[in-house]
Amino acid sequence: MLNATSNTPLLFKVSARIHGNGKGKVLFAWDNQAKYMASTGTSKVVHIHRAINRRGLRFAAQTTRLGYVLFRQITPPGSGICCALEWNAVGLKLAIVQQSSSILVLWNADNGTNEQINISGRDHLCFVKFSNETNHLAVGTTRGTMYILHSDIKKTTTIRHVKSGKIIDGKWSLVGTGNRFAWVTIDKHVHCCDEQGNVLFHQNLN
Question: Which of 163, 172, 161, 117 is nearest to 142 (CA)?
Fold first, then answer.
């Protein structure tokens, strides 16, 4: 990471070499506790950086963050670059989506393992978002199909009777407000469902 101005302290930086030698965009995401940062580029590899304190030790709540060190590398199975990185609410699971792929990769910070889940068959994933209070994941595709995945039990629910254009954005409700998810598609349709996949609302904005 480069400092924005000459007066901004540089905490750490990540070499362009690991992201693809300076070609293309870099995608990155911090977990909510700022213990980990995930980054990826045209190299197609996801790099997990772990926070360290002043003594170079792993970050703990009572210590002062100094920077981040490369901790783990994840190579997703597809040939496309990664288009989405998303941490769960407590920063222990990272969801990874690649272009032109139906496979969702979940990395577990507790044990360092990752698993691959085929969500949509031949339909390509383009969007992923963790709930703010549970381990439910909203996973969207380029054809407009939305899935709700419970990442603990690997149960996937397809949102029925809702399909329009590519999913371009979405948000889960705030903690304590019913764990609902709303999303918008490229053809200007807005939908809302609960964590069970029941459609609660639909509006055509055209």
Answer: 163
